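Preliminary data (for renewal application), flavin-adenine dinucleotide complex.
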Amino acid sequence: MTTRIVIIGGGPAGHSAATYGARLGAEIVLIERDVLGGAAHLWDCIPSKAMIATGGALSFLARSEGMGLEQVSPHIDLDGVRERLSGIEAKLTNSTNRVLESQKVRIVDGIGTLLGPNLVRATTPDGEHEDFEADYIVLCTGSRPRLPDWAAVDGDRILSTRDAYPPKQLPEHLVVVGSGVTGVEFVHMFRSFGSEVTLLVSRQQVLPAKDPEVAAALEDDFIRRGVNLMKGARSTGIERTESGVIVHAEDGRHAEGSHALLAIGSIPNSESLGLENVGIETDGGYVTVDHHCRSAVPHIYAAGDLSGRLPLSSVASMQGRKIAEHAMGMHDLPHRHLDYDKAASAIFTEPEIADVGLAEADAFAEGRKIRVTKVPFSVSAKALINNDSRGFVKIVSDPATGVVLGGSIVGRHAAELISVLALAVTAGLTVTDLVESLFVHPALAEVLGEAAE
Ligand SMILES: Cc1cc2nc3c(=O)[nH]c(=O)nc-3n(C[C@H](O)[C@H](O)[C@H](O)COP(=O)(O)OP(=O)(O)OC[C@H]3O[C@@H](n4cnc5c(N)ncnc54)[C@H](O)[C@@H]3O)c2cc1C
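Predicted structure:
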């Protein structure tokens, strides 16, 4: 008998579970209340990186002095940016639809709810409903921005991340609250668009979870570009004034601007899923899962942001794939466990920041013996050619075996270059493997080989 899998949520996790499940022969129903591709396509990864690319084109030109170019002074056209974002989103949604349809996935436009352990209801926009029996259920309803009660987000002057693609007007002075990955990307984006930017940093370091040396490189760049950093400033309120906003900090300081943007994390979309109908409990709204992404009810899986693991699109997709393989009985094959510690991640600032595996600071905290090697991009011919020698490559390896345990890259194309280290970490390659790889010349990747020496 054909295995029936019902998936609620069509973001990266749901899309991947559907694609791989169908490929492995399952009959798939995918219920999505909004747009296939999920928040990742509509609000998060794609529009933010597309806007950063526009800002990057501007800052590239600004940095091109000395490259033999006549200087030009382009400016931001918000309508053009908006049109570009809709175009990208439409193309991605179409291709997502095409892939799923070609694999005979049944796409249902509606809100999915669990009625019982093997029964899912889809309520369509016109209020009709259809029920689906399932052997396996995959919950991947994602998350949404956390909005605190001390800030009245109005989408006009006080913005959530979802109001920023792009806002109605370019902020003259944007006050960003939140200095994690999302916050610093918005700082970079709007600064490169020409806005004045103030960043409220609740602790003493931007990117508090990152390697201090990496965070310091970003802070230096922000300061060089005129970003105002208010460290140790925990926001407690945002007041709207006639012409703008005032963001108040716990210690009495405040920051004035034309707009404020909140980037203080997200909360899971789990409250109306009907989890109580099947006895699944949540931890802070997240569905607790085991290493196969199974919930407390073993044939009901959760993936993506809802699973409370690493909130990354890449991780969500990999979880979706692993779930499909597990449900279809492939769990006895080797290498089937997803190791979150080996996920590469990037921050699309300028310079870009990317890392994977064991961080130097974490190794020290654990008292673990490691070898750390670091080479700046200033030694690279390609960096000179690019007119951008900022940043470095750092590799963390095992001093006894040479196995690459992790690494960080700060600099242009770090998000691409980290893939080499991600492969090394996943495959257990050694620094010698990197040293003996014949990289292209001239290429930034050559610095990886040098850092591995
Ligand atoms: C500003 C920002 C930028 C980011 N940039 C990156 C990046 O560059 N790289 C990266 O890897 N990650 C990035 N992320 C994180 C990434 O967007 C998420 O980790 C990813 O979208 C999670 O995928 P998902 O499938 O769990 O959920 P989502 O993409 O949120 O999709 C969930 C889907 O479920 C649907 N849904 C919800 N409830 C129901 C229901 N009851 N019935 C039917 N459908 C439902 C929603 O409509 C949505 O389409 C970013 C996040 C933010 C906030």
